[in-house]
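Annual report, structural modelling task.

Input specification for the iron/sulfur cluster complex:
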Amino acid sequence: MAEKLLEINHAQIYYATLAGYVKAVDNVNFDINEGEIVGLAGESGCGKSTLIKSIYGFIKYPMKAISGEINLLTNGNKLNMLFVEKEELRKVRWKYISYVPQASLHVLNPVTRIKKQFLESVKREHNVKEKEAMDEVKEYLKSLGLPPDVLDSFPHQLSGGMQQRVIIAMATFLKPRIVLADEPTTALDVVVQRGILQMLRDIQKELKNSLIIVSHDMGVHYQITHKIVIMYAGKIAEIGPTDEIFNNPYHPYTRLLINSLPRIGDREQRSGIEGSPPNLLNPPEGCRFNPRCPSKMKICEEKIPEMVEISKGHFVACHLFQKNGKRVKEDAE
Ligand code: SF4
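The model returned the following structure:
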């Protein structure tokens, strides 16, 4: 059985504002196993970027961990990334868990050659000799199909796609067990996007580690993930194997999300999901999707739906389904 690398239990991460807390991630639970590529999906503001930052222990005011656990499981130890000390973080970052941030094309320092940035990021976290590190970096770049002379370039001399490849190479050089990638293909053209996804998949296959990828683009999830976590308004709506989520979605929100995607050969105009996500300062009572849900029932305004397992590894949080996974209302088709 695959080893569990990460467990998320009742994670609550809010943003402090003058008007109160924005409940960005609210009671989220799931696990990540070795070898899995997991996608976090949902509209903007659903909490996916907040969650991925928190998994990396990157929690800075006004972001605030309220309660729960995001446990990194390392050699029999548990490290709760929601309430971790700086020194503990330093030990696990890069070597155990690494992060390719959103808008990472702005991450590289424009006035410093790539070589220096690569070495600084590696040496900052781990005590290695420069010459040895440089030889290994060159070998690693070659293994990824990147020309080692990128090391002598300044970022502006590289294309957007090449900068992104360099950042991914930096993030994976120390062979971390978990790689987090926040919208890694945003702002890149479709051909470059495909190359980046292929690179991430190849690295994951080689390292046999786990990749957690955030994207608002369901096409990205379809291409690369094994499992998808659908988030809505700070909560998980549905989790399941990627092919099931696409072929047999249960949650009304997931259905609308999938139905809004264009299909090859289908000229019919696809409509978006009506309405907009709720204000998380004051989210709706009961199911947070209820103001937009075409299948809403009375209970949906009163009670938060629990997560139930419909089939192996496929969970949904919706009152249309009972504990045994049986549908209680047929009009969600
Ligand atoms: Fe719709 Fe109710 Fe299910 Fe929420 S719990 S998705 S409102 S049917």
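The pocket of iron/sulfur cluster is lined by residues 251-252, 287, 289-290, 293, 295-297, 300, 305, 318-320 (CB under 6 Å).
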